[in-house]
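Customer escalation, tier 2.

The customer says the design service returned an amino acid string that "doesn't look like it belongs to this structure." They asked us to rerun it and document both sides in this ticket. The original structure tokens are below, unchanged.
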């Protein structure tokens, strides 16, 4: 292993949250489309609902980059509503137990009145938020809501990102999408492919490219074919 390669392993891994790093799949494409449609929203309130790791925070950061939105903390809601304005805002985990319900009520009112873009994220539907009154619930229901699902494609994609990140390797999301569409669908296969692609890239002295991904898939498919007594084709139609 080269000295340069060893040095890269000593650096901390920071997850990429840019627009180009978002992996669009069946479970998140509508929510992604909403974020990408900004600033051409017909209404100011947007709600993203989904479990952990479904991409809500990543989309919130993409929205902030596109809009210049401020991430509002629990103690900021009342003041933001009182100060007014039309600057975009993000309130994450709005269904948590410790937020300022009155402040959120006033902020929702202000955003609807002044057509101020507000992106909310939550893990639960509005009906399940732990609210003391229905005032916030009735206003939150006016938001255009999108549900993000943690599909197999998204889970496998996140696993690729995590395992490559652990090795301090940055891979184009399009390559990850290419792999997920063609691989045997299991978490074990992700581990094997990441290791194989890393070794192939090191041997060739290059970054992980589409051709390396294709070569790794071919080798894994050959291994599967030998294991099961036959070979099967890589459905590479691009």
């Amino acid at each position: 292993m080269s000295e340069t390669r060893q040095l890269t392993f000593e650096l901390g891994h920071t997850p990429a949250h840019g627009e180009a790093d978002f992996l669009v799949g069946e479970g998140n494409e509508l929510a992604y489309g909403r974020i990408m449609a900004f600033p051409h929203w017909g209404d100011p309130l947007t709600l993203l609902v989904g479990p952990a790791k479904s991409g809500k925070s990543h989309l919130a950061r993409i929205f902030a980059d596109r809009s210049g939105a401020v991430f509002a903390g629990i103690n900021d809601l009342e003041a933001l509503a009182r100060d007014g304005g039309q600057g975009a805002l993000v309130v994450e985990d709005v269904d948590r137990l410790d937020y300022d319900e009155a402040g959120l009520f006033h902020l929702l009112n202000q955003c609807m009145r002044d057509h101020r873009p507000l992106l909310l994220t939550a893990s639960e539907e509005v009906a399940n938020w732990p609210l003391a009154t229905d005032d916030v619930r009735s206003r939150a229901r006016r938001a255009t809501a999108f549900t993000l699902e943690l599909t197999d494609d998204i889970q496998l994609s996140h696993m690729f990102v995590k395992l490559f990140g652990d090795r301090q390797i940055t891979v184009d999301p399009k390559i990850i999408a290419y792999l997920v569409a063609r691989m045997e669908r299991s978490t074990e296969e992700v581990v094997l492919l990441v290791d194989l692609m890393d070794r192939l890239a090191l041997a060739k002295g290059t970054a992980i490219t589409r051709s390396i991904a294709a070569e790794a898939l071919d080798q894994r498919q050959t291994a599967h074919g030998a294991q099961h007594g036959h070979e099967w084709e890589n459905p590479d139609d691009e």
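Tier 2 assessment: The sequence is consistent with the input. The chain is about 50% helix and 10% strand. Strands lie at 45-49, 70-71, 89-91, 118-122, 144-147. Sent an explanation to the customer and offered a walkthrough call.
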